[in-house]
Amino acid sequence: KRFWLQGGGVEHRLKAGRAAPTLGSWCPAAMARPARDIGSGKRDYESADDEDESSRDESYESEGSEDDKGPQATKFFVAGTAVIVAVGLAIFWYVRQAVSSEERASPSWLRSKRFVMPLINGSNLTQSWDTELVEGMCLGREKEGLPVFDDDDEDEDDEEEFGDSYEGEGDAKPAAKTSRRLGSYIKAIVAVEGVRRFVLADGATMPYYSSADVQQEEPSGAEFVVFVFHGAVRDAINYFCAGKNLMLSQKKYPLEKSLLVVLKWHYAIDEPIPGDVWWNSSKPWGSWMAGGHSDIRSGNGAMISSFSVIDEFLVYLADNPTKYPKLKEILLMGHSAGGQTLHRYAFATHLKPPKLSTPEDVANKLGFRKDLDIRFVIANPSSYLYLDNNRWAYSCGDPDSDNPTGCTILEYKEFEFDLGRHDWSVDFEFGNEGYRVTEGLGKNNGTDYPFICRTWMYNHWFYGLNWTHLNDGFVVPYLAEHPNITEAVEIYPDRDVVYLVGQNDTCTDNEFNFCDEKCWTRNISTSLCYRNHMDMRCPAMLQGPNRNSRGFHYQRHLYEFYGRTVHGLIEVPGTGHEGGKMLTADYGLIAIEGSTKEILNMSIDPLSVPLGQVTTTTWAPGMPIR
């Protein structure tokens, strides 16, 4: 028989000739987790050693099955007990040594790793990179011909137009729809286990992958911490493995002094364990991407903003000289929906950047010590946070326009509802070919209606800052509780941020009767101009026709708003909406290893992005914000 021992200790297989006791009688602490059925096919320890192991099982079981037969059972009871204990210990030792790297990626093995990490040579601090663990978790995920990961944007997964769930209600429609669309692929991702759990201030837990335990008891020698944020498919393990490749390539910090962390944002469909926080995807109140609160049914009733979760991780690492005495730099990287999360977080976080933090800010957990670098790398987000009412006027595919098989030149001007085309709408169902079916691109052409669409919600959070909503508190609670949102606008240029956009991330998901020649698609023969699933709601379309365009035009928006170059933008050549390539290409390494000054010298000049025929007024600190 096989008995799974769980809870607080090593989980292993124990074979015996008699029935095993119940799980609860052996380890009551494990009762919170259901017993696993070894025969279910979920996971077993059968391997190349099975033939030898089988012979050991037979001899062991025959040995144990004789001790109840005849008078010899009593005579040899003591000796038999000793033999059973000795053989059991020997089997345990052998199985423990024989566990393969792939099996060690399982949650059972990960929970058993309670030993102290090796010390860094010449110090009393532990290493922050467990090579055996990391390689085991990523085994089989990087085979040639198989993409490390590929993802969609959460914000287009549900059927509703932006704002329909603004009353704060919502369920797991986006996740469920993603599951139906991607089938077994999403199930394989969601089924991946082996996560650690970070205990938040209110006692709830946040699942994550890492190269070492963030909350370990022993002091860590980590000097460099990298957070990688996954996309809407929530394939955190794949992003972890892509992050591993990045860490192996960078030469800025020794691997033993580097810590890799990937937070795993859950929906109910992901089967989180009791105590885990998860989100319900209502827009924006329950969206982790927008700083929304976790669902009240999760985290033992705790409702916590996704941005507060990030705050807690950063404060724990940065303001913890006992546990992380050598920490020098924290880098946060995100692609796609993960990029959107980081972009909004970099603006809205309650934590001031290090160079503007005072000792009082650090003491009150509202800032960082000045000798710590906090950096953001934001790759291919589907939309951006605009800081005023200006947007981009253009049209696409109008037969009587100057460019009937493309888009007109974008003009930067204050958005007016009456100047937008009527009836822009998108159906979120998919055709037989696997891409979206369009309901309509709106009436009228761009001559009389220069904006491609019209919506009153173009400036709602998280596409913009609607100051009426901010003043009335009609925003996600994290934003409503911000210590000083006007100050957040003023200090946003002081955040260390670089944006990455793929040169070939120009697809428009078959919305138009043409496709940009650089468009990168999954399957050219059937997908036409279909990439993954881009946000093509009206608030996003007012920022540009595709991701690449939106990245360039956002840089010009920041320049126009602040009157100077803000942050940096790097275009990654020959890359579409491919998270693995974006974060592990040479430009991803540059974002890690290069200084802020070096990155700015490589960045796109925002003045190279034309404004069209319209000029605007530059905002400056102290000026009123509309």
| Number of distinct beta strands | 14
Poorly predicted segments: 6-69, 95-114, 143-193, 428-440, 614-626
- Could you tell me the strand content as a percent range? 5-15%
Class inferred from helices and paired strands: alpha/beta
Q: What is the distance, rounded to the nearest whole angstrom, between the alpha carbons of the first and last residues?
A: 71 Å
> Taking Cα atoms only, what radius of gyration do you get, to the nearest Å?
27 Å
Biggest sheet features: 8 strands, mixed
Mean pLDDT: 74
Strand order of the largest sheet: 3-4-6-5-7-8-13-14
Total helices: the number is 21
Quick one: overall form? globular
Considering DSSP H and I runs of 4 or more, what fraction of the residues is helical? 25-40%
Protein topology:
Layout (H helix, E strand, L loop, with lengths): L1 E3 L8 E3 L7 H4 L23 H16 L6 H4 L1 H22 L8 H6 L18 H8 L34 H10 L1 H8 L4 E4 L5 E6 L13 E6 L6 H14 L8 E6 L42 H13 L10 E7 L1 H12 L10 H5 L9 E7 L10 E4 L17 E4 L7 E4 L14 E4 L23 H6 L4 H4 L4 H7 L4 E7 L21 H4 L10 H4 L5 H16 L5 E5 L6 H6 L1 H8 L2 H7 L24
Parallel strand pairs: 5-6, 5-7, 7-8, 8-13, 13-14
Antiparallel strand pairs: 1-2, 3-4, 4-6, 9-10, 11-12
